[in-house]
Amino acid sequence: MFEDRANKRTELSELGEFGLINHLTKDVFINHPETIRGIGDDAAVIEPSGKQMLVTCDLLVEGVHFDLTYTPLKHLGYKAAVVNISDIAAMNGIPKQLVIGIAVSNRFSVEAIDEIYAGIMLACERYKVDLVGGDTTSSRSGLFISVTAIGEAEPDKVVYRNTAKENNLVCVTGDLGGAYAGLLLLEREKKTYEANPEMQPELEGYDYALERQLKPEARMDVVLKLREAGIVPTAMIDISDGLASEILHICNDSKMGAVIYEEKIPIDAVVAGIAEEFHIEPVVAALNGGEDYELLFTVDINDFEKISAIPGISIIGHITEEATGVNMMSNSGSLITIRAQGWDHYRNTEE
Ligand code: ADP
Ligand code: MG
To answer: Where in the chain is the domain with CATH 3.30.1330.10?
Structure first.
């Protein structure tokens, strides 16, 4: 749908496991002096820096977490790396190393795996992360990608989910609902294509939402800006499952309540337009859509001026005592209880 697939097809069996590993990792570049040894031995060697180490892992399964009919493989590799880097960002840390496990069936060619790695390597370059190892194996069917990211932060800079305090400001980066709007468009195109393969995709003018879905970014830029401004959030989480689910995580784990204001929730005009096209209220896309990978965090009210001075951050509400619950003040002035309706991969499947 997006790119001409390479015409050449090299079977995985032509390279074998070791040939494939060598082929995929030949251009790997090490950025950090803490990476003593990367790929090539039984284990990578990392020099502890005296900071605290952050470790996170995500397993992506074809047909559950991604759909190859509309996900270009390079984007898939990029996104797989970025979502893990986003988890390090959400701890207020700096990502340093990545470990990749990949299982592929012989339906995939060497060129296809190359595309996935091109995406992974692009993310490594952009976020200055060292690819230090992994595992490569075959699968009976389908593609599996497991990514582990390793990062670091000074002990007093690590930010948890369960430490929001009453009267803290609730802040969010960027805008929300875009990735979900992109998914709606891609699913619609897929259905149209399945019904009639002659149909040309109608995706012009939708670039922003498609990019939000297919090529998300981790907000490391914000982590660095907060550092520069001398702000340590009191609690933080990245928005992978929608604003509703994430604010509930922070509040439930912190034993607090919150009020957020519908009018303050940042939604791009293009995204709002797409939501309306699908008869969905834009705020619902922000609350219940997923995969925006923006940061949701709380700060002390004394940081109000400093936070306001950073572009691209919206203050959407404040933390209250637990008994108040977690609510949204709607544009019409009614208080609505927030419930989680994030992605639930198990909800509609037999697994
Ligand atoms: P082992 O038998 O010890 O598991 P492998 O032959 O699987 O070693 O891997 C050899 C080296 O290549 C190791 O350093 C491993 O971390 C690295 N490696 C294997 N697969 C990948 C991959 N998909 N991406 C990055 N590095 C990999
Ligand atoms: Mg191995």
So the answer is: 12-153
Ligand 1 contacts CB of residue 133 (under 6 A): yes
CB count in 10 Å sphere of residue 60? 17
For residue 133, give the ligand 1 atom closest to its CA. Answer: 16
| Residue among 53, 290, 42 at smallest CA distance from 154 | 53
Ligand 1 pocket: which of 17, 136, 137, 138 to mutate (most atoms <8 Å of CB)?
Answer: 136
Neighbours of ion ligand 2 (CB under 5 A): 135
Q: Which ligand is nearest to the CA of 113?
A: 1
Would the pTM count as exceeding 0.85? yes
Determine the topology of domain 169-350 in CATH: Phosphoribosyl-aminoimidazole Synthetase; Chain A, domain 2 (3.90.650)
- What residue's CA is closest to ligand 1, atom 20? 135
What is the identity of the amino acid at 69? Answer: T
Q: Are 91 and 30 in contact (CB under 8 A)?
A: no
Supply 254's token pair. 């912190």
CATH number for the domain whose boundaries are 12-153:
3.30.1330.10
For the chain, where do the domains classified as CATH 3.90.650.10 start and end?
169-350
Q: Contact 111/6 with Cβ under 8 angstroms?
A: yes
CA distance 155 to 284: 37
| Whole-number Å distance between alpha carbons of 166 and 5 | 53
Instruction: Determine whether the shortest distance from the Cβ of 148 to ligand 1 is under 6 A.
Output: no
Atom of ligand 1 nearest to the CA of 101: 23
pLDDT by position in tens, the chain (length 351): 444 455 689 999 999 889 999 999 999 989 999 999 999 999 999 998 889 999 999 999 999 999 999 999 999 999 999 999 999 999 999 999 999 999 999 999 999 999 999 999 999 999 999 999 999 999 998 999 999 999 999 999 999 999 999 999 999 999 999 999 999 999 999 998 888 888 777 778 899 999 999 999 999 999 999 999 999 999 999 999 999 999 999 999 999 999 999 999 999 999 999 999 999 999 999 999 999 999 999 999 999 999 999 999 999 999 999 999 999 999 999 999 998 764 444 444 333
Q: Which ligand is nearest to the CA of 100?
A: 1
